[in-house]
Amino acid sequence: MDNFRFLNPTRIIFGRGTENQVGREAAGYAKKVLLHYGGDSAKKTGLYDRVVNSLKAAGVEYVELGGVKPNPRLSLVREGIRLCREHKPELILAVGGGSVIDSAKAIAAGVPYAGDVWDFFTGKAEVKAAIPLATILTIPAAGSEASTGCVITNEEGWYKRAFNSEYVYPQFSILNPELAFTLPKYQVACGAADIIAHLMERYFTNTQHVEFTDRLIEATVKTIVHNVPLVLAQPDNYDAWAEVMWAGTIAHNNLLNTGREGDWASHDIEHEISAIYDVAHGAGLAVVFPAWMKYVYKHDIKRFTQFAVRIWNVDENFWSPELTILEGISRHEAFLKSLGLPTRLADMEIDTSRVEEMAAKCTSNDSSTTGHFVELHQKDVANILMLSK
Ligand code: NZQ
Ligand code: ZN
Asked: What are the tens digits of pLDDT across the range 285-297?
């Protein structure tokens, strides 16, 4: 196990009706908040009204900025920064999924920074301060409600890039599983694929002696595999949603990578797909991850055998570990497919004409590699994309 430091400061407020506490919680940080949300789902479901009523009841003023799109855009982040500089809210309240939360994080980091907020995404500058933010989560998926991550798409050139910073950990995140009842089935499935990918990116590591986190990851994947079909069949199954929502947060709040190095190549490759084709992140991952596994499994036969046996209950073939592994990968892919997800580029109506471009963008024209479990060069990324065609 590697040395590590771990602190996740986000207070989780979990359970039925908890969004009604938001005014009281926000009042501890601010007299005025920026209320940030996405399309029309929050208004349609009545969540927006409950949030506004709770803020008003607690005497918290708000300025609002809606319209965050999935794969959130830099232009709206810039608008949010302008709005914050004008109205000076002391807290940004993100009501939505990963896209709204990431947009809020970028605004939070951008407000006190004198330069262009995109600098954080290109590595030109590091986040040194951010105004506080908080979230009300409406979809278990990205894990942004308790993560250091922030992923934004720059419409100029369609670059989707991330930064990580402890400054953008939300102060508090409200998780009410009831809010997920209204999710379209496809978004549920995409969320599940993202949660599983966050777990698998951490699972495939070269770090030795990480049994505790291995077993936590395996248990978390199994929880998702058991409960997501339940919520798809019964969208108002609170108990199953509660398992999915909490597992989704733990999958990405950095607990499960303590003492181990994750991979993250599949995420980098997926970001190139969703940047260009604007597909849901989870759908892109359902396509990339199985192909990535097929491409790299020979790097560590023991770890992949463990994956197949412990996560997918494959009967170990003692004479051919490879057959055990391929059966595990096949069950993984079949599960994603059973949720209604694409598992090939063609399922998303994406052809291979821009594979080289995506591979080049992902590796800065082969001047860098992606992934830690196996370091991938431009040609490897192209090969993985071709495997997923
Ligand atoms: O915009 P609205 O109308 O709210 O609709 C949203 C959106 O269309 C809808 N939705 C959300 N909650 C709903 C609902 N519809 C009905 N009822 C509800 N309760 O779902 C759609 C997808 O929302 P989005 O926020 O895009 O989903 P998700 O949470 O999957 O976020 C995806 C983004 O997060 C990034 C992804 O790259 C992508 O841009 N990620 C962020 C990470 C992080 N910050 O740590 C890590 C992840 O790996 C990921 O990269
Ligand atoms: Zn993800």
From this structure: 999 999 999 999 9
